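quick one
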Amino acid sequence: MALALPCPCPLRAAKCGRLEFLLSCLLFVGPSAAAGLGAEDALLVRRLEFLVALEPPAPINASCAAQPLPAARACTAPLFARDARELSRPSKIALMLLFNAEADSLEIALHEYAGVVHTVFLVEGTRTTRLGSKKALLWEQIQRQARFDVLRDNVVHIVFDDAASSAASIDVARSGNGWVVENAQTAHGWRSFLRWNAATRVFADHDVFISADTDEIMSREALHELAGCRLHGPVASGGLWMPQGSMARAFRPDWPASHAHPYAFGMPTIYRMAELLRGCANFASKACAVPGRQFGRSNMSAFLLGGMHLTHYTYLPHVLLKKVTTNEYHGLSAQDVAALSSVEQARALALREFTLDSHLDWKRRSVPVGLVRDFATFARTPWFLACNKARYPAWWGHADPREARIPEVMRAPARALTPGFRRLQRKL
Ligand SMILES: *[C@@H]1O[C@H](CO)[C@@H](O)[C@H](O)[C@H]1NC(C)=O
Ligand SMILES: *[C@@H]1O[C@H](CO)[C@@H](O)[C@H](O)[C@H]1NC(C)=O
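structure w/ 2-acetamido-2-deoxy-beta-D-glucopyranose:
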């Protein structure tokens, strides 16, 4: 229908009136169609969402817990004031996460944050950041799972709704900039945080705001230090180990936290609340700066090392969903899709992802961790991941038992994939 209109959205031709153009955009089926993500792909996204939402079958290891936090803080990291002493009253930490569908990584993250982060603001859109195709609101579907008991009540779900998502997706198609959706989600998350905070008055000048992705996990020790020491400047960054598939390797990122630590990824971005709030008395104002993820470029001298970037987690449905939906990847190949028809092919593909044989550029940029001289200063595996190897076998290159269900879910009728997923959640 959109094709028959004289002013095809999203490209406004000079001769088109504003009204005709807006009308064509109302009828526009979205950049997903323009970019070739048809109904079949949308169904594939739903199938993969189903598989990432499944709880890992291995039970949580009840005999393993986080190390107790140190009684005293050192306050010597480069982002703290030079004469910093431990604060008499620690700051509260607000952590804003952009969430696509990384259910397992979120489970690991929330266990790391319990007791050190005050509130997690989980920003989730109804469209994917890449291509802007429709997606399920996954948090709605997984939050009652027992694995999220640990911090569920401290999570505020911020939904980037379909009206806002569609507008951002159209901007992507128009500008060709795939990051528009993520930027719009960040701005929406920040304004929602401000509205929430204006009502609740939980956070004030004294506190700290962190802007992160779900898989960028600062260690509890670093967060504990952050809450209890005076920051020198308004903005700083974390510094995370980036294993990229195998835990035996470290990837050299484009954006290090500091030139002195080239293997420490400079994320997430840490902000002092005082400066952020000051510019946002009127939070709808364009002048209210949005605290985005700055990829270590905020201030290369102000950083706090410690944590892990759980990017390229190779549980196959997770990595394939990421390929279809996020900007870092470029979609699925025909071989990727074909591999989903049998358990053996799926396993073989997962292994190629794990060994980086399907990402030779990344492989060239990663080295065995033993060769990274300052590895011990920044690499911290989240305790919950270290304690639950059987729950996350993909991090060690082993088969995830949920992979055995891939062909069955690929064949299941679309109606079995509706929200709640009840029928398929039980054994078919
Ligand atoms: C559970 O944690 C304990 C203590 O760290 C460890 O010895 C054990 O191997 C873990 N069990 C599993 C199944 O991972
Ligand atoms: C960057 O951080 C360092 C260390 O905290 C600080 O001395 C310096 O003033 C900061 N630079 C800017 C431009 O904020």
